[in-house]
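Field: COMPLEX_INPUT
Field: COMPONENT_COUNT = two
Field: RESIDUE_TOTAL = 746
Field: MODE = joint
Values follow.
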Amino acid sequence: MKRWLTRAAWLGVALGGALSLAGIALNRGEPVNSAWLVVAAVCTYLTAYRFYAKFIAAKVMFLDDNRATPAERLRNGHDFEPTNKWILFGHHFAAIAGPGPLVGPTLAAQFGYLPGTLWIIAGAALGGAVQDFTILFCSMRRDGKSLGQMAREEIGRLGGVIALLTVLLIMIILLAVVALVVVNALASSPWGTFTIAATMPIAVFMGLYLRYWRPGKVLEISLIGFGLVVLSIFGGQWVSQSPTLAPWFTLSSMTLAVAIIIYGFLASALPVWLLLAPRDYLSTFVKLGVVMLLAAGIMAVRPHLALPALTQFTDGNGPIFAGKIFPFCFITIACGAISGFHSLISSGTTPKMIAKESHARPVGYGSMLLEGLVAIMAMVAAASLHPGVFFAVNSPAGIVGATPEAATATISSWGYPVTPAEMDNLAKEVGEQTLYHRTGGAPSLALGMAEIFARGAGGRAILGFWYHFAIMFEALFILTILDAGTRVGRFMLQDLLGHVWKPLGRVSWMPGVLFTSAAVVAAWGYFLVQGVRDPLGGINSLWPLFGIANQLLAAVALSVATTVLIKMHRARYMWITCTPLAWLVLVTFTGGWHKIFSPEPRLGFLAQAADLSQKLQTGALSAAEIAQTKALIFNARLDAVVCGIFLVLVGAILLDSIRLWAGILRGTRTAEVKESPFVLSRLKAEEI
Amino acid sequence: MKAIRGALRGIWRLLRELSDEAAYERFLQDRGASASPEQWRHFCRHRLGAKYQRPKCC
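Field: COMPLEX_OUTPUT
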């Protein structure tokens, strides 16, 4: 009887998901409630977790709780420590959740809410979660080895070198693009700039408090730090209304970019306990708290979706970024569905903390599904905005026109009516001078979140507080990625340069630290400045480049996972990793090809360079314009080269993998599994 | 009531793990030491040094 009831319940969940999906996909001409998106995602994810993930765990991986995990065998109280599965689930989720699943879906909403939503639901269940789960499994069976080490051991030396180079290159593009998101959110915004600037002395205060006054009391100081950050939001409002102080914090995009570059350098070179670590603690707690708050807000308010299911921009002429729905919707969503970066977390800290092998399913597969749900919430926040407002905030001046009149007229002509008065009122309500041309996704996401929060608590009277609370939340953890990423890039560079000249590899040698920090900051800073100067807003070039790079890293991870499955004699199940791998290769290589060779100047880097060269040859430009155009031509060609390098690197690792797979399947190469030997687990339930 | 208490205890343990307080406690237990500014600095050198050599997710 109980068995039948369980089956009936799961049938209900599956049917609920199917009906919700059908509802959002087929409903036309009447407003759709956002709750349908959430129900469709939750039901699909529950079904995928219960059946697909369980199938992979039981039939493909043979997860065995009698087998001691690295956390048990190598237990040292630091890295290797058996941890309760739900605590590890939260720990892993906090590590994988970044700005990608929030910004990507917001930008992809230019195609309408439907394509992005369907991809987030399907991509996370069949691709992203599979990647995270299989890489976690592979690393767990190999004493917690990193993706690079596994690529080297399982595929070959070339695979390891390519994985390292790909990570370094992706990180540079990632840091540039997230920095650009912050710059575009804070430009000419004294309120936002003051609030974010205040988080730096607050973090230093937290670091000193932990070091000298109350060592080890991280939760205590994090609570104090959060209180101070909330106070700084009120302080920011006061500053923005002060005729003396407001000009000090009203900064141009270029000034902000330089400030962020200096900050990145300092954070990378200073001791971690002073700035980076306290900021990271604060950012982690704020991130988890706001995600829960947004989930509660969406369920309480259940806003109607104002954006249409599909917009006319599926044809590739979207104002936010150029490119057709295929492949650019998938590249833009990136982390919300599949993120190559997750494979670095799944093969880093987490496998060293898993107490029992069966925990890999909730931790690896389940955490990614939760991240997919965060991406759905971001889509809801963006799609619940008035479409005219959404496009006015996200479209660059180079596309819609620089003046409010021109921008609103262009956007209204697309069928999304909006007036300068509406935009002015909204800007006033959130305490900003203007909301036009704030490309990057963060401000429109903050607006969507603020509308939801305000309807849940406080009403429109405190819309400004909620808007700046959301901006603070986004900027806080983006800047944490920036400083931690710069530091990691520095270590990678020191590792590489240490082979050339030994002192450069020493992390305690200050000239080496300063030189490599400056080199990493200069690399991402160059792309950041390029984005700030770009008349098309920067996001048009940099976000697709980041998306392609991120998805290519996922292709590397899935190649490693497929190799391991074949070596484990599970070739009959290789479709589990090969299907998302084939999709990623198709999407990224098509996207990369378009970005390099498309004849459309807004889309193809080389066409853009050729178009600008033609303008240069007309001789109608002033001296300043000539210098700027020459820089833009160089940047477009550089972007084409970077994109080409990504494709060549991943193409090489794919060919190397396929050669190996064919050899093993034909029997000409041995399938040597590099797993750690079986040791019987003696870990008792009460120990975890 | 028991379930709520369990959930709250779980959240508290998660917060302690995320804040490295649980790791610090294990560190002290392993060394048979009690909390002090010196021990915390020693812990930070190992823990934070390793933590910020790994990339953060996007």
